Amino acid sequence: MNELRMYVEHLFEGKVLTPENIELKEEIYGNLVARYEDLIASGLDESEAIAQTKESMTSIDDVIIENPTDSSSDECDGDDISDAVDESGDSHDPDQVDPVASTPHDGPTPITENVAVLHQQPEQSAPRKRTWPVVLACVLIGLLVMGVGFAGCSLMFGIKAPDQYDGEQTEHVENVDASRGEGSSESGSTAAGNASPTPTKKNSEIFIDENGQVWVDGELGDELAEEVVNAGYGVVAEYVDTDLTDAAKVETLLRSLPMGEYASDVDVTKGVDVLSLAYRELPETLEGDSVDAALAYDVTAVFCAMPLVNEIQITLTESDGPLDESYYVFKRDEVQSRYGVRLDDLLVNEAGWHQIKEDNLYRRKFIENMVDVAEKEWK
Known about the structure:
Blueprint lengths: L1 H10 L7 H23 L4 H10 L16 H18 L21 H8 L9 H30 L4 H8 L36 E3 L5 E3 L2 E2 L2 H8 L2 H5 L9 H9 L7 E5 L6 E9 L5 H18 L5 E8 L2 E11 H8 L10 H12 L4 H9 E2 L3
Parallel strand pairs: 5-6
Antiparallel strand pairs: 1-2, 2-3, 4-5, 6-7, 7-8
Helix pairs in contact: 1-2, 2-3, 4-6, 5-6, 8-11, 11-14
């Protein structure tokens, strides 16, 4: 599937990797993989199946998510304000006040701006007692027109009042255990540096409900899923810049991470930038989705703490089949491309861990695609 992964990366060259676009990229990759597998199952050879799969998605320009622009204010306000100024100008003597025509603007104009821009007085002198009533009338007419226009735009384009947004933002509440160095977010509050909304059931694989319960793919998560959610950056911060040659410290780092009690066969001699380990005889009670989440989180944490490691090789077995081994190879460049940011010590803080987990790991299909690409066959 590496060729399809590289093809998807090519489609997104030059695109801004916002969290929404990263999620879109993973969905496109998943769809292409599914199509490729269907073509193989129908009897096509690999090369023809790859070619037809690529032809099904030659461009993402029609689906890429860009920053929306709201043009409703331009459509509703500009002409109305100008008409209001013209109408008000006919009701008084031009020898006394000549209002200046309004300039285009992008949104509703504050009261002070109406007075300054729409009704600037010429330098010629005029009796104040006759000028101010006219100016005040123009301002009131302008405000009335803007109010009616904004109300119409709100109904037409579905603009919501501020209290409606506040109500929606407090609908979902996230409670995360802070015992390992990560704070919890409560209703109506947002952590510093958090630029993305808290994930909801609609767009998240992992979700924490208002009671603090962890849900994975619509089902109540097991102990390992809770361990991944509760894992904070504080533990990883103790091992930042760990050298690969320090085998004892490397093993201590691995055992401090989720699923660390099953870590074994730690090997730091396979290359100057290669770390190898195994998770053996995992209990049957652990859900497969939770194991994948722990793998993805542990690999990410190691890459952040050990900037010189570029490849992590993992062997995994379960207690009911100790000889049935699964093999994974996680490469730094591939993992970093999914996050859209370099994984290093600069992310080992509250804002960085929020970006890693809530903005990426918890997103739908993120973990699944990351682990699927890393899974290899024994040679």
